[in-house]
């Protein structure tokens, strides 16, 4: 939580700094005293911006109430400054020759309490006073000389092992047996109308693989999958925020004609799966977690060229880590992505294991996975946190054009201001790092395997991102 709030505050501060710099350009033709006020405001904000990253290295329970309050004040003040700048730019664009008097007149009419008698100069002085107060508060709690912004100047290449973990579901270890078992349930010769209810983790991925396998011999595969994906999206939108009883309405619309029809439902919750089977011929199937052997294969595939490359001491620690992952593929991939960015040393892996143990003790499988995702999120540098949270604006299963995503990051001020080409290269580096950490899934990779053209976010990761983004007011859903 602390890391997310600090990241959001840092992200909006970066956007504010860029907009203040833009106000100093000739296109606004501001008076000298106003420009001096803006530069002074920039200096104070730079000081606060340097303090925030230190909070990201601490958990919420390690930060006292005063520091939390300061962090919150900085975030809200940043939003206020950004709103003020946006109003100024809007009114200036409607201005008559950019006259200061004309600007003040229109601003008074539109914003009422803002830009009163002394116009923009008075507003800047007010903001500077508030910023100075918060800056001084921050200095009382933190030694600014020890604050360092960790931002690598070296571009991060795409790790070729990362996309390999996100190949089609049929290639993922541990999926063959459950796929064939469910297909046999669907293909049984019983002509009775029947529901097959699949519950557990990653049921959607399993369902896609099942439909792909069946469609190879019965239907036009691409057309069938596209139709089913659209149907899933439509039904999910219809049932969003509805109770389990909504299933009764859906079931009543399904034909019971004894033509061997099969209805497949997927859910993470066993009680929901049971409710779908009530009063109708049905079979339930629990999507089983990966075996320890398959978990180990998936884990080592991300970190080593082969399992034999793992030192025996690391193998022992990895076994303990995998036990805590409970055979959940997404949890395994996430922890492997976290460790891929660290030294392959026993003490490093043991520290990660301790964090996992503290986070997931006595939780349900879905809660364990979300807490493991939180560990991966906490490990991100602040600039990547903001970029990851931005992905909350995309719908589930939406194919994201990578270049378009990078340009959106640039437009939102999440990439440090440089020339356009450099900003796009830096954005590409940020995206590669999120993929390397297994937080973003590449779905279309360039011919040479070095550039990802299209990506998506796993539905569980998206839920996590959305909850974090909404909780901190990063976006409004």
Automatic annotation (TrEMBL):
Biological process annotations from GO: defense response to bacterium; innate immune response-activating signaling pathway; plant-type hypersensitive response
Organism classification: Eukaryota, Viridiplantae, Streptophyta, Embryophyta, Tracheophyta
Signal peptide per UniProt: none
Disease resistance N-terminal domain boundaries: 12-96
Alphabetized PANTHER family for the sequence: DISEASE RESISTANCE PROTEIN RP (PTHR23155), OS08G0387700 PROTEIN (PTHR23155:SF1137)
Protein's UniProt name: Uncharacterized protein
One MF annotation (Gene Ontology) recorded for this entry: ADP binding
Keywords: Leucine-rich repeat, Nucleotide-binding, Plant defense, Repeat
Presence of keyword Transmembrane: no
Organism this protein belongs to: Miscanthus lutarioriparius
Domain Disease resistance protein winged helix stretches: 393-465
Protein family according to the UniProt entry: Belongs to the disease resistance NB-LRR family.
């Amino acid at each position: 939580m602390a890391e997310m709030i600090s990241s959001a505050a840092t992200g909006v501060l970066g956007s504010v700094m860029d907009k203040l710099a833009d106000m100093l350009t000739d296109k606004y033709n501001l008076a000298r005293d106003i420009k001096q006020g803006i530069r002074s405001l920039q200096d104070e904000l730079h000081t606060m911006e340097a303090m925030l990253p230190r909070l990201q290295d601490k958990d919420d329970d390690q930060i006292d109430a005063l520091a939390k309050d300061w962090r919150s004040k900085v975030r809200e003040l940043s939003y206020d400054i950004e709103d003020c700048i946006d109003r100024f730019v809007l009114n200036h664009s409607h201005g008559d020759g950019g006259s200061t008097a004309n600007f003040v007149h229109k601003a008074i009419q539109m914003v009422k309490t803002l830009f009163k008698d002394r116009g923009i100069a008075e507003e800047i002085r007010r903001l500077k006073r508030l910023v100075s107060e918060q800056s001084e508060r921050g200095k009382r709690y933190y030694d600014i000389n020890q604050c360092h912004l960790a931002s690598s100047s070296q571009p991060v290449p795409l790790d070729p092992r990362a996309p390999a973990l996100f190949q089609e579901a049929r290639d993922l270890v541990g999926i063959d047996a459950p796929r064939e078992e469910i297909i046999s349930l669907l293909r049984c010769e019983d002509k009775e109308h029947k529901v097959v209810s699949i519950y557990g983790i990653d049921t959607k991925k399993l369902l896609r693989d099942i439909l792909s396998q069946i469609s190879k011999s019965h239907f036009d595969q691409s057309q069938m999958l596209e139709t089913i994906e659209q149907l899933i999206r439509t039904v999910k939108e219809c049932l969003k925020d509805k109770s389990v009883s909504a299933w009764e309405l859906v079931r009543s619309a399904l034909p019971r004609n004894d033509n061997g029809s099969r209805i497949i439902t997927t859910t993470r919750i066993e009680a929901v799966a049971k409710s779908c089977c009530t009063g109708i011929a049905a079979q339930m199937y629990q999507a089983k977690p990966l075996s320890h052997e398959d978990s180990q294969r998936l884990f080592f595939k991300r970190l080593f060229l082969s399992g034999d490359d793992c030192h025996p001491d690391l193998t022992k620690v990895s076994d303990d880590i995998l036990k805590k992952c409970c055979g959940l593929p997404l949890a395994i991939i996430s922890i492997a992505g976290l460790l891929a960015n660290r030294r392959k040393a026993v003490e490093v892996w043991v520290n990660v294991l301790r964090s996992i143990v503290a986070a997931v003790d006595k939780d349900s499988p879905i809660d364990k996975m979300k807490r493991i995702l939180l560990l991966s999120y906490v490990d991100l540098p602040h600039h990547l946190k903001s970029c990851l949270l931005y992905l909350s604006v995309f719908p589930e299963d939406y194919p994201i054009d990578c270049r378009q995503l990078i340009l959106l990051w640039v437009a939102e001020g999440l990439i440090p201001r440089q020339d356009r080409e450099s900003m796009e290269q830096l954005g590409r580096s940020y995206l590669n790092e999120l993929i390397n950490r297994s937080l973003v899934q590449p779905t279309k990779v360039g011919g040479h395997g070095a550039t990802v053209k299209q990506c998506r976010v796993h539905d569980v990761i998206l839920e996590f991102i959305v909850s974090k983004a909404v909780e901190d007011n990063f976006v409004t859903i």
